[in-house]
Amino acid sequence: MTLNEFNQLDTLAAANALRQCCVSEAWVVRMLGARPFEYEHELYATAEACWQGLDRADYLQAFEGHPKIGDVGSLRAKYANTKVLAAGEQAAVSDADEQTLRALAEGNTAYEARFGYIFIVCATGKSAEEMLSLLNARLSNSPDDELAIAAAEQNKITLIRLQKMLST
């Protein structure tokens, strides 16, 4: 859709389009309140500003909209209504060997036990091995540092999805 088409959507349809990019309700509400957007770069800047103004609970809600890296069953279930915009985000995982997939699953379990939410990484363009390396490196972060890193990764994902939304 074009930016003009997005601006002309009714509130419910626009909210649904935004939820395909990020499931934080606070972010969606803020984005709806900022419409209409004159330029795409304004939409992206507003998305980032809205994201930066959120709190821990909003970030955690956004994280819930993601499958665990490498969990194919979770990918299918959670991406059912966002499959167009999320397509290809974890494509490299499908080519990973069994050992790497097993290590990702174990790392995700350790990560979730340590931080209370799944590992969030902008997977676009990263191999399974790169994601595993990032996951292992981030396991030693403090909870506050890790939340900031995960939130920054979520912001990258959201911006990529907004760009895809306007190019489909």
Describe this structure in words.
One of its GO terms (biological process) is urate catabolic process. This is 2-oxo-4-hydroxy-4-carboxy-5-ureidoimidazoline decarboxylase. Pathway: Purine metabolism; urate degradation; (S)-allantoin from urate: step 3/3. Keywords: Decarboxylase, Lyase, Purine metabolism. The chain is mostly helical and 168 residues long. The chain folds into two domains: 3-62 and 159-167, UraD-like; 67-143, Oxo-4-hydroxy-4-carboxy-5-ureidoimidazoline decarboxylase (UraD-like, Orthogonal Bundle). It contains ten helices and no strands. The chain has helices at residues 3-8, 11-19, 25-34, 40-52, 56-63, 72-78, 83-86, 98-115, 128-138, 143-165. Mean pLDDT is 87; it is low at 75-87.
